[in-house]
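Board notes, transcribed. Complex of a protein with acetyl coenzyme *A.
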Amino acid sequence: TPTPTTTVEWPLTCTVGPGLEGAIACETKVGYVNGQKGWLVYRGYNIFDLCAYSSFEEVSYLLLHGSLPSPAELEAFNQKLSTYRDISQTLRLLMNFPVEQISPMAALRLGINLMRQKQTFRDYEGALSDQAPIASDEDSIPMETLPKGDREAIYQFDKPHFIAPMDTASDLGSSTELESCYRLISGVAVLTAAIVRIRQGKLPIEPRRDLSHAANFLYMVTGEVPDDLQTRIMDVNLILHADHGMNASTFSSMVVASTLSDIYFSIGAGVAALSGPLHGGANEEVIKVLQEIGSPDRVELWFDRARKEKRKIPGFGHRVYKAYDPRARILGPLAEALAQQNPKMTLLMKTAKKLERTVVESLGKEKKIFPNVDFYSGLVYKALNLPSSIFTPIFAMSRVSGWTSRIIEYLEHNRIFRPRAIYTGDFYEDFPRQGDSK
Ligand code: ACO
């Protein structure tokens, strides 16, 4: 087990490269990555131990609260998360937008924004029952701006009682920042499952409170309770993606939070940053590349061409890891275990293994390029029969634990993020240049 050590004093002088490489943004106790040694640590615990003995719920509690929960605390936390699965009012609103016409990440961001609206549902209810809408506060969406649709249809969820009554619904905003974090952890998973269903022309499935976070998610996507292996692998996958240092999406969400914007906007910013192909979008690209290659015997030819074209191979390389990504080390065998259950995966898996060997033999020593977590997460989702368009939202539904934990921690001693740029443009007047930084 690695022992995280603090070797620097804060504030410190550091050398910063392009892409803020080497810049130190803040102090944290949430998580630690050692890229040279391939370590990943959450609140002092080795990722290998957490994956072996913990659950996503327990890890989320650990990240947010700083210590592992007692059995009673975990029970209470699980209860809370399952209660917060009821975001029926947000889903009602979401379904009034053309969700199937926008990307799943855009839909997720929209859904998170809608979760933020505390008064909206009341406005909406008023309009639905032809009463005068309750005067909206500045946060709410006035009814007139919602696209017109078949308003009756949005009530036709799979189960008649899906829409909870107003007074018991948990979807009414929250009193504390921490409650909003719990609400977001549950809500992003429910939104992701609902977005898959809506894109398939189906209605969202009512969440089940008796299932774990991972099992409920898979159930809400497929309508079937997953088996133990599928549930456990999904759970481990969520643990692995929950936090990872000052990555682009975490930093983006913290930058927004540092302006004292609210947590929903901040998490929306994390979702936006995660959607890019250099970050969370890579897992979808991995599957596209494996399908493009087609079979193991075509890997070398494909790789030589990709090198000539100076193409970045999705699922390989990392800004921090210059050793094998521990997350890929854990996920690789799990992807293989799932693939064995699913004959459609055999060719894809064999192609992936060959590509991994080829890339590592060629670029491992030379450039320290190894598979990253995205190389195997896409294969895990594919083996679980999840559509590739929601691979990145699944990443978000896990990383929301890390985003919220780091935001809460940072806000304890908040200072707005405000780096500078080196001006390399022209001066068309003779400005006095002393100081130069203004
Ligand atoms: N395939 C081929 N060569 C690569 C790859 C790759 N996937 N990644 C890096 N390199 C090479 C670069 O060409 C560069 O070579 P050079 O020094 O000869 O120019 C060198 O390695 C350093 O690469 P940079 O792009 O400078 O590394 P950076 O730290 O800026 O980027 C990144 C890291 C974005 C992850 C990059 O490795 C990449 O684009 N990988 C593919 C996309 C991907 O898998 N993203 C997921 C990242 S993990 C995550 O977000 C969960």
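The longest strand covers residues 31-34. The CA atoms of residues 2 and 349 lie 31 Å apart.
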